[in-house]
Amino acid sequence: MESLHYLLPPKVKLRKEIPLEDFLCSDINGAVGALLKSKRVDFVLEGEGKCLLVEFKTNINFNNLSAAMTEMAVVKKFANARFANSTFTSSLHLFPYRANVKGLRELNICLGSPLDFIWVLCEGPQLKFDIQAIKEFRSQVDRCLV
Known about the structure:
Shape: globular
Oligomer: single chain
Mean pLDDT: 91
CATH topology: Trna Endonuclease, Chain: A, domain 1
Strand content: 25-35%
CATH architecture: 3-Layer(aba) Sandwich
């Protein structure tokens, strides 16, 4: 996703592949701690003392969204004091193909909204960019970080 920085508001800083443990409290031990130390957040967007964690997935389907939800649920449950009240979670998807996107969004809500935002940037199954979705992505990033 080399073009992501072009979609961001000017004051937002983009960092790639940041260790998940940077956002978590340090007292997570044992097998869970070892597991979480091996995970990375795909993108971190930063601005004005807040950050937005972004899990990037090429497709949106049950498995991809579930993986993003699980990782972001970990952040919400175990966030360190520095990030607990200033971090938003999200997943960014390119292609919906024939996925029931509405159902996937409702599932996120049913599970307590581990993802604050779910963005799908293309329309399916033709796989053309959804200009309105891209504008909404930029606007939401701007509202929560700037």
